[in-house]
Amino acid sequence: MEERRWNTTDLELKHLRCLVAIIDTGSFTDAGFELGISQAAVSRNLRGLEQLLGVRLLHRTSRTVAPTSTGVRVLARARILLAGAHDLVAEATGGHARLHIGHAWSAFGSHTTEFQRRWHERHPEVELRLVRHNSPTGGLAEGMCDLAVVRAPLDLKPWSHALVGHEHRVVALASDDPWARRRSIRLDEIPARTLVIDRRTGTTTLGLWPADERPDVEYTHDIDDWLAAIATSRSVGVTPRATAAQYRRDGIVYRPLRDAAPVPVHLIWRRQDPHPATHAAVALAIDLYHGEDKPPSLRK
């Protein structure tokens, strides 16, 4: 078959649907019945696909139809593309049936499981999906989510946002670190150690200490590298309590950090066309964070 130059704009979903239907039904006639088109149209679409690709996709006899070795590979890719097209249509027409909440490190920390449980009880019509994305906006700027949990210092002006709560800071240590035997660590003790800071999405900055009393720093670029550096016992990390709830690792312990301001926790979302469930999610997060301050008898 003569090879030709073409681009992806020549390829149509009808070509792929016909190929899949021919293989799944076993004949051009049955494929036409399955798709609601004539056998001739099935043949034209298959011939058009083969011409576009410049390869033969099917072995055809009077009784059987089977894919060539190239056809097997194209068939597998066609199924993926058709499934993706189906998902695109479903998302566009019913996207509000899902709520994606992004986060860089630890979602709602110790409240995550309860948030998921209450959301399922109160809003069963809206599927909740938590998405981890290693970016300052937790995937919101990248289009990965509808809302994002943000703890890192961030210019909030481009986004609609709500302060949902605060989290105390803790010190992350190797389990064999001498400080691991202590009940808590003071903020002014940290400059005696090397401090690991996640440059991309971390919440800790050197602004926590006076300019002339700052610790030496080792920079990392994601949570896994951050934890690995701390596990060596060469350094320590300062992080919100949510990290301790989300990342319980062998070789790592967490101790409260005294004398440090808590970390604000914000939910952010796009100003234009917010998800209809946005305010319900904000209200639930606020309820969970503020419930920490209530006596046990008043907590929900």
Molecular structure report:
This protein has 300 residues and is of the alpha/beta class. The protein has three domains: 8-67, Orthogonal Bundle (Arc Repressor Mutant, subunit A); 95-166 and 264-298, D-Maltodextrin-Binding Protein, domain 2 (3-Layer(aba) Sandwich); 169-261, Periplasmic binding protein-like II (D-Maltodextrin-Binding Protein, domain 2, 3-Layer(aba) Sandwich). It has eight helices and 13 strands. The chain has a six-stranded mixed beta sheet. Strands 4-3-5-13-6 form a five-stranded mixed beta sheet, covered by helices on one side. A two-stranded antiparallel ribbon has the order 1-2. Strand 1 (58-60) and strand 2 (65-67) form a beta hairpin. The chain is elongated, with a radius of gyration of 27 Å.
Write the topology of this structure:
Layout: H1 13-25, H2 28-35, H3 39-53, E1 58-60, E2 65-67, H4 69-94, E3 98-103, H5 112-122, E4 127-132, E5 147-150, E6 160-167, E7 169-174, E8 185-186, E9 194-198, E10 216-220, H6 223-231, E11 235-240, H7 241-246, E12 252-258, E13 263-269, H8 278-291
Parallel strand pairs: 3-4, 3-5, 8-12, 9-10, 9-11
Antiparallel strand pairs: 1-2, 5-13, 6-13, 7-11, 7-12
Helix pairs in contact: 1-2, 1-3, 1-4, 2-3, 5-8
What would you say about this model in short?
It is built from eight helices and 13 strands.
